[in-house]
Design a protein that fits this description.
Length: 432
């Protein structure tokens, strides 16, 4: 209590139990680094921490409750993930914040409008909370308010001038319910976007690739998006993970898939020259705590739910499963030679399996089940030497199942179930 000149306090993982004493915050008000993470500390945080000098404030994995306080002007890094906090204070403020890990709490309400003024914010992880309704628009008015150089009547300034610097925006497993957030128009530097498992509705806007040209990961899985997949989505040159599964998209898969440039190279030959918050170098340059990257993504591949962490980016994947997509599988899909996972299962796709499917040499998992695909299975499929999971069941495929190479050695308990529901198929492993 009397160590008032402490600059650095590091008492992480020390078995501390009970409430944080009321004097803690004033005693350490001059400290720049406070790490009390991984204990059993409980109780509410003070509503206002403006008087502190802390730059890095780490409190993750405790039992803290109450509201997320108004932060000091000095705070750049905040980690209070894995606690039981339940909202933001009404006047939430954090002008210097660069990275905030707030995932796995019980935060309700919505994201405060003040986010529009956080010009330094790069990483915001709000996954696994109870947030609802819509995100703030951050229209030009909201953005201007916080920008000191914006006192200028000249109208020549473009909206982009005021844009945010967010590179990672992770909102999975909440209850957001608006249309595709307009907020994202102000995030031209976005690299990772995860809206998985919310209640977002409506169509994807055509501005998606223009507004966020550097997206590497676009995860919209398990929402209520509908309408056509806009052709503009193919303008996402850097995208490596495109997951639109479990929505209600209809219409055809847009053509010109070959414009997804990053997927036309294999993952090892790809340049990873963007900000990767899951990478060591990025963390040290941002002087972030390693726990910020302790978040992970659950990915469905090879029929299993797998947890991906640092290696997420090496998973080059397109998952459009469980929608209402019609028409043929575009032939130019076969130019995406970097693809490791392709899942088009449970749609209404018709026509043949692209003849050149054997070009997708990196494929490890291919699921085309539960569609209306017809014709023969292309011989080239057996050239996919990395393939370990294949499912072509419940289509209208016919003819002899190709044999030789990889197709004979796929490890599965029940090989016939890869082809089940295609009465016209014959040859091993089906009995006909
Ligand atoms: C979703 O978030 C809640 C907390 O709000 C958590 O209890 C639950 O485990 C999360 N679900 C998944 C699939 O991560
Ligand atoms: C904008 O600038 C003018 C003149 O420089 C000044 O009088 C006015 O108070 C400023 N407004 C704000 C909101 O700072
Ligand atoms: C206002 O904008 C004009 C044109 O962009 C610029 O020349 C001028 O310096 C700006 N004034 C302020 C106070 O920022
Ligand atoms: C999916 O979209 C179609 C129109 O394309 C609509 O008729 C149907 O009701 C939607 N299904 C759900 C579950 O929203
Ligand atoms: C990687 O980046 C370098 C320089 O930035 C460039 O010359 C090279 O063509 C890139 N390689 C690929 C596969 O994009
Ligand atoms: C990282 O995550 C693992 C498993 O989810 C957890 O056991 C561990 O405590 C976390 N580490 C930190 C520093 O939060
Ligand atoms: C394809 O997606 C469906 C639905 O999302 C899932 O059930 C299935 O396991 C996936 N297939 C593979 C091979 O991962
Ligand atoms: C299945 O394909 C055959 C031709 O191979 C075609 O005659 C038949 O109409 C198709 N059945 C369905 C239900 O699409
Ligand atoms: C293929 O998908 C069908 C339908 O979802 C399922 O019954 C079957 O077990 C799957 N087979 C393999 C090998 O994954």
């Amino acid at each position: 209590r009397w160590q008032k000149s402490t600059k650095i306090l590091h008492i992480s993982n020390t078995g501390l139990v009970g409430k944080i004493p009321y004097w803690f915050w004033t005693t350490f008000s001059d400290a720049t680094y406070l790490d009390i993470s991984l204990n059993h500390l409980s109780g509410n945080l003070p509503l206002n921490l403006e008087f502190m000098s802390v730059i890095k404030l780490l409190m993750q994995s405790n039992l803290l409750t109450g509201l997320i306080p108004k932060l000091s002007r000095t705070t750049e890094i905040l980690d209070i993930s894995r606690n039981s906090l339940n909202g933001f204070v009404p006047n939430f403020q954090a002008p210097q914040l660069r990275a905030a890990a707030l995932f796995s709490n019980s935060i309700t309400g919505t994201i405060p409008k003040t986010i529009c003024r956080m010009q330094k914010l790069r990483v915001l992880d709000l996954s696994n909370n109870l947030l609802s309704k819509e995100l703030p628009d951050c229209g030009i008015k909201e953005l201007k308010q916080g920008n000191p150089s914006s006192n200028n009547s000249s109208k020549v300034r473009s909206l982009r001038y005021f844009s945010l610097r967010i590179t990672s925006f992770l909102l999975s497993n909440n209850s957001f319910s608006s249309g595709f957030p307009l907020f994202l128009r102000q995030c031209p530097r976005l690299v990772f976007l995860d809206l998985t498992q919310n209640k977002f509705t409506g169509e994807l806007p055509g501005w998606i690739s223009e507004a966020m040209p550097g997206l590497v990961m676009l995860r919209l899985r398990s929402n209520k998006f509908s309408g056509h997949i806009p052709v503009e989505i193919m303008g996402l040159q850097d995208v490596r993970i495109l997951d639109l599964s479990n929505n209600n998209f209809s219409g055809a898969i847009p053509k010109c898939l070959e414009k997804l440039k990053a997927l036309t190279h294999t993952s090892t030959s790809n340049n990873m020259s963007f900000d990767n918050p899951f990478e060591e170098g990025y963390r040290s340059s941002m002087s972030m705590s390693s726990s910020l990257s302790n978040d992970s993504f659950l990915v469905v591949i090879k029929g299993q739910l797998l947890e991906y962490r640092e290696n997420t980016l090496y998973l080059m994947s397109i998952d459009l499963s469980c929608n209402s997509l019609i028409g043929e599988i575009p032939e130019d899909l076969t130019s995406l030679v970097g693809l490791i996972n392709l899942n088009l299962s449970s749609n209404l796709l018709s026509g043949n399996i692209p003849y050149k499917i054997g070009n997708l040499r990196s494929l490890e998992s291919l699921d085309l089940s539960k569609n209306k695909l017809a014709g023969e299975i292309p011989e080239g499929l057996s050239d996919l030497t990395y393939l370990s999971c294949l499912n072509l069941s419940y289509n209208n495929l016919s003819g002899r199942i190709p044999s030789g190479h990889q197709l004979d050695i796929l490890e599965t308990n029940d090989p016939a179930s890869m082809y089940i529901g295609n009465p016209g198929l014959c040859g091993l492993p089906v009995s006909r």
